[in-house]
Amino acid sequence: MNKLSIKIGNLTFNSPVIAASGTFGFGLEYKEILNINDFGAIVTKGITIERREGNPLPRIIETPCGLINSIGLANPGVKEFVKQYGDIYKNFPTNIIVNVAGGNISDFINIIKKIEHLNVIGYELNLSCPNVSDGGMILSEDPNDIYILIKTIRNITNKLIISKLTPNLCNTIELARASEEAGCDAISLVNTYLGMSIDIETCYSRIGKDYGGYSGPAIKPMALKLVYDISNAVDIPIIGIGGISSGSDAIEFLIAGASLIQVGSIIFRNPQIAFEINTFIENYMDRKSINDLNEIIGTFKGSI
Amino acid sequence: MRRIKSQILSNKRLSKELYLINFTSEKIEEDILPGNFLHILVSSSLDPFLRRPFSIFDISEGTISVLYRVIGKGTYIMKDLRKGDEIDIIGPLGNSYPIDNSNNVYCIAGGTGIASIHFLIKYIKQNQTNKQITLCWGAKTIHEFILMNEFQLISDKITFSTEDGSYGNEGLITDFLPIFKDNSIIYACGPDGMLHILKKKPIDLPMFFSVEKRMACGVGVCLGCAVKMNNDTYKYTCIDGPVFNANELKYE
User: Fold this and answer.
1) B179 has a chain A CB within 8 A of its CB
2) Active-site residue numbers of A?
3) Interacting residues of A109 by C-beta distance below 8 A, sequence separation 6+
4) Which numeric CATH code is attached to B104-212?
5) Nearest chain A residue (CA) to B223
6) Is it true that domain A6-55+73-196+213-295 has CATH number 3.40.50.2300?
7) ipTM value of the model?
8) A263 at the B interface (CB within 8 A)?
9) At what angle do helices A143-156 and A172-181 cross, to 10 degrees?
């Protein structure tokens, strides 16, 4: 058996490395320069009911060791998504997870009903886009709303349900617990941190909105801390996200309690990152005589 | 599109802020057309974090040249690269200038926009020797006019302008355009301000702009390098561009 494989329920991931939503398109864009099956799964760009053009320009600004984005869920809408990718996903080199971005419960349900027949293993619920006023951000603040949303979705699908949480609220633990109680299969976190960048000559924001979503290696220590906290608060698997840029970063998240990890912004810089992380973890496991990834997960020992 | 490790062959300072870097191409130059760009990672440090998109100044067998202005963190590191140093390149990316059968070609370049125009003119001269090429080249100041002999050689006519009047006409190049002949095509590459002025002019000829936008991925996944179209939708510089028909673009 592949040493790097890991299971969530009855689903097998050939690698713990997943491409994060919004950083790998719909799975094919990078195919000329990497092996897609280096990733255990691909999470698609967030899909909404209707097509969205996205936010005003400019949409990205680099900051030290990271970037702030204000993309605004630009996507073709669920109908066009099914038309364009339904057939492609019938025979795809790795698992596909669709990131679903609804503004309310009925949006989520309508989107999932329209994609339930596709050959995708599950849904990552975008409860936390920082860049749209009618997106999941509002929904995600109340644990009761999260509970009802996920419970409702649980009733219409047996596929994997992943609750993607924001790091920008104080009650992340309550949101994670509500997700678990409602029957969610896994929690992914963190989505981007809210961040700003100001042009001091013009006093305008350096992106098209006042603030955006901050990602990249700069957020890794904060994300790691939250992944650690949440993995201690719930029993369902955690998918760790936040500035992971190397094999060593990935293992830190596994030790902190994540069962899988997502890489995002680093893909823009190094598209072959999944291959590099896989190789690094294999070597690490050999060196430590570890045969199963589960032997790494949640082994944090605290401080000496 | 390929990802290559490339060796620097030379990195010359041409003027105060402009440099010309030449590096090995590992054969990707065979796929390069005028207008395409490269996404270059200049440092193994995580700061700067992102690759930088550069248009292509020139290609020869086995090598590629990029003209750049030292303007930020990435290019500041780039200027200190020496022969033998390695850079990480993804490319070629983006579309190319459409080339038609017009008798006359007008190229309008502003600042470092001259880079992709240089390659375009050379390409047209090599492949369609009968064309009349007019270059209209605007810059802030005289120091930005680099490799003048070569431009004189490959263009049939050149008009210069500088904003400070230090060379050629004083003012913006868009104020010194020739009267365009019929059966012509116009290509322009430069700052948004220049393209905006061009777009507003009553020009009844095919006109193509190569635009510059900040981008993260270069392959159409991050959706950061959006440009607004006339119908208020967006297209993306990295995959739909960088060359757009001027009619499609909206400037506000």
Assistant:
1) no
2) 129
3) A102, A152, A153, A156
4) 3.40.50.80
5) A71
6) no
7) 0.95
8) no
9) 30
